[in-house]
Amino acid sequence: MSRLFPFIGFMLLVGLFGFGIWWNTQHDPNAIPTPLLNKPAPEFNLPKLYEPAQTVSKADLLGKPYLLNVFASWCIECGVEHPVLTAEGPTLGVALVGYNYKDAPDDAKGWLAKHGNPYDLLIADEPGHTAIDFGVYGAPESFLIDAKGVIRYKHIGPLTPDVMAKELKPAIAAMLKEAP
Amino acid sequence: MRLRSGRSPLAGDAFVPGFGHRDSGLAKAKASPASGLLRAVFVALLLFAGFAHAQAIEPMPFKDHAQELRFQHLTHQLRCPMCQNETLADSNAPIARDLRNQIFQMMQQGKSDEEIKQYLVARYSGFVLYDPPLTARTWLLWFGPLLILLAGAGVVLVAIRRRGRAGSTTITETPTDNGDDW
């Protein structure tokens, strides 16, 4: 019997490592859980990308839910996300707010002119200060914010059809069910 | 973001062909009068490599040297959320630069290290702390190694006792190895 112990120990290790590999295929190991989930979104007051003289604050957007999508023209993965957002954005049932992150306005406008503009509203955070309050550390990132201004869901990295179907759409459905 | 983090990584890339030339040059270096030149280029590259690293951190107008030391100490304890194996002090990621600036500003406002850490944890979670606090979520992280050590010690103890008992009763009867002592 005691001869089996090393083998059992070995199999336990195999199980542990196998679990680790499986876990990492299911989760993005680089994604940091946001402490802001189910908490009020931070206050912000940012200029519109196309009309920098006008600003948009959190209070302006209260009353209806929206998806805040952090993007930038320098961000390679945003190019991966963009067609998905363009195709599926209008079907989501929430407004799409583009959050242009640490980008030169002309670069951002050029990028949108080239790839198309799926956003209902575009705000720009060129210095990136407000983004720190949102816990943004790269692009793309997406926040689902409800009519009361509470963050209901966050996704780090590009929104893929899979993420949309499995995470974002159920989160939107749950939110709309609660407060239509 | 690579485009924006510009300076140092780009500078680093630019050195790579330099090192390649040096390697190919060394093979025929003995007879070549160019070896002295190559050595000079190599030394220059080494010097510039240090220079590029120093540039990763922009100079900040610290009040005094003590504040600068405090800043360095604090940023070395914090983890860059983007390049997750780098400290805020070392990382050249845009977000690390922004957070360093933010920390600097908060220091000027007289915020304590603890307040600054709380500010970052509230936004980026406990992930940013290299020294995670002991909470219900992290106790396994803290005590897991100790538990594994204790489990190992237990196994060794049991094995030694068993062997000792087996030895005292059977050693005279079966002096040969019974193959059971793993």
From TrEMBL, chain A:
GO terms for cellular component: outer membrane-bounded periplasmic space; plasma membrane. One of its GO terms (biological process) is cytochrome complex assembly. Keywords: Cytochrome c-type biogenesis, Disulfide bond, Membrane, Redox-active center, Transmembrane, Transmembrane helix. Residues 35-177 form the Thioredoxin domain. The chain crosses the membrane at residues 7-25. It is found in: Cell inner membrane. The keyword Transmembrane helix applies. It comes from the Bacteria. The keyword Plastid does not apply. Its main location: membrane. It is a single-pass membrane protein. One of its GO terms (molecular function) is disulfide oxidoreductase activity. Belongs to the thioredoxin family. DsbE subfamily. NCBIfam families: dsbE (TIGR00385). This is Thiol:disulfide interchange protein. It comes from Rhodanobacter thiooxydans. The lineage of its organism: Bacteria, Pseudomonadati, Pseudomonadota, Gammaproteobacteria, Lysobacterales.
